[in-house]
Amino acid sequence: MNNLYDIIIVGAGHSGSEAAAAAANMGSKTLLITTDMTAIAKMSCNPAIGGIAKGQIVREIDALGGYTGIVTDETAIQFRMLNVSKGPAMWSPRAQSDRLKFSAVWREKLEQTENLQFWQDTVTELIIKDKVVKGVKTKLGVSFFAEAVILTNGTFLNGLMHVGKTQIPGGRDADAPSFGLSEQLKKYNIPVLRMKTGTPARLDGRTINFEKLTEQKGDDYVSMFTFLPEVKTKLKQRSCYIVYTNKDAHNTLKEGFKFSPLFNGTIAGTGPRYCPSIEDKLVTFSEKDSHMLFLEPEGENTIEYYLNGFSSSLPLETQYNALHKIEGFENLKIFRPGYAIEYDYFDPTFLNLNLESKVINNLFFAGQINGTTGYEEAAAQGIMAGINAHLKINKKEPFVLKRDEAYIGVLIDDLINKGVDEPYRMFTSRAEYRILLRQDNADFRLTEKSYNIGLASDFRYKHFLYKKEKVDEIINLLKKTNIEPEKLNPYLKKRNLSEIKQKERLEKILLRPQIKITDLIPLSEILTNFVRLLKSQKEEILNSVEIQLKYKSYIDREKQTAEKLKRLEDKNIPENFDFSKLQSLSTEATQKLNKIRPKNIGQASRIPGVSPADISALLIYFGR
């Protein structure tokens, strides 16, 4: 066996899969180690990708050259664009996927990736010499060596599952936990903490009365994650359903609270605030008599359903009885109960912005072991860790996205500077520059950057350049083309809109909130002829034009704000600077700055506990 590689990735979840693809596609000889080759990028929780802010992250991963968006589009059984009634900064794509096909297609993509090898085993120990990682040792007694190692162990490190009083060691249902790494890293003074997540029961669709439920169909347009052309699902589209709990179900659930590991002290880990268990909801929102749930199909043809919003660690009997109190579930049968899972994670403030450990050189961390929750947040860290591990071993500068460049930049900046005390989930409200970080322009923001570091393919880059060229051409056409009153006014009159008295530029007409670019195309022969010549993804090109013009003033304002704050990013702080020697800093700021060791004053300004007065002191000192 050849046991020597450039990069080793431990774990093949969403984070590990993106890390492996990125590292291998950039040219590193890569080894992906997983405990189960049939569970690559497995959807351990709900069978869906995207949502508020998460959809933006997936489009950013795709713009960089990752696979999550492509796999989602190819395996989608429902697509919805959320928040379309709001401004484009809030539009968020979301898709239901066929759970089994999602994992199978991911494996197929990785198996077709050059430079990538696989090994089915469990890593129990890192090989470290003089605080530099050299490789890994496995449960089978095999040693693999590499210049860099990326840990993406998800919920497997000392994983423990709970169903009432029953405790089962595991990283997820039917999968064994991983031991050894947490204990080893503790010796290097890296804080190892505990978190909790959960999942609901899986339901037998044959025993559900769907006539009592509210159907929720998807959009007609079902391929919206990848920017690449001609990627579409061939799967049958399925509906989701809205379900509601009630007082009877709540009372049944409360009867099991005395056996709940959440409430009797059995579970010590912190759970996700924004995706709470059903028992958490009943306590936190005790005044509510009903909670909305979403019934989601697990695949194109399967009868299995996922009940989103009903995760629980209550005893099996309690879960089963409570479910039967819900309208439509009177005759319900389940395949397995919900459960909670506790697992180890590492304090992300002990990482650099490239996700490399500050303590052990060439060791990278990505995914839920950094305290995040969700497939999308994990995949985002994975692709960035894969990129940066390759750049590090090739002695190139780190690839770090700023907060005004990507939600991925916001995510990683928050983890490193603020740390986590509960599972971190991305929201649009976490980003200061939401108008800049839209789902429609992720390729404009990131594809050229990725191409320049060697990840985005020639095909992807050429497709991006074509789109950019056509967007610019249409904008210029709208700016210089006039429309006569006799052509436009009949349309305006029909819409009860104010008419024009003389020729107006198409650009000015489009600024009216009631008018879309698709309304103007049939009214202008020049615009009609131009659009007819466009290749695939016309809708995406036209949307981009419309958003850029309608929201130009808001976009320009956010860009100006971002540019002002970037000046702080340019004021670097020496790597080993001792903040204790600045007596003008507060005690808390000194402690936080010495722990996190920011690279520049901009990063320092985002650390909790570092006040504006502390930043002023740093600016005065380093300004000298």
Task: Give the class from helix and strand content and strand pairing.
Answer: alpha+beta
Helical fraction = 25-40%
Beta content: 15-25%
**CATH architectural designation of the domain at 202-339:** Beta Barrel
Structure write-up:
This protein has 624 residues and is an alpha+beta fold. Among the domains are: 202-339, Beta Barrel (Elongation Factor Tu (Ef-tu), domain 3); 458-555, Orthogonal Bundle (Arc Repressor Mutant, subunit A), CATH 1.10.10.1800; 570-623, GidA associated domain, C-terminal subdomain (DNA polymerase, domain 1, Orthogonal Bundle), CATH 1.10.150. 36% of the residues lie in helices and 18% in strands. The chain contains 21 helices and 22 strands. The strands form five sheets. Strands 1, 2, 6, 7, 8, 9 and 20 form a seven-stranded mixed beta sheet that branches. The chain has a six-stranded antiparallel beta sheet with strand order 14-15-16-17-13-18, with no helix packed on it. It has a four-stranded antiparallel beta sheet with strand order 11-10-19-12. Strand 10 (160-163) and strand 11 (166-169) form a beta hairpin. The longest helix has 23 residues, at 458-480.
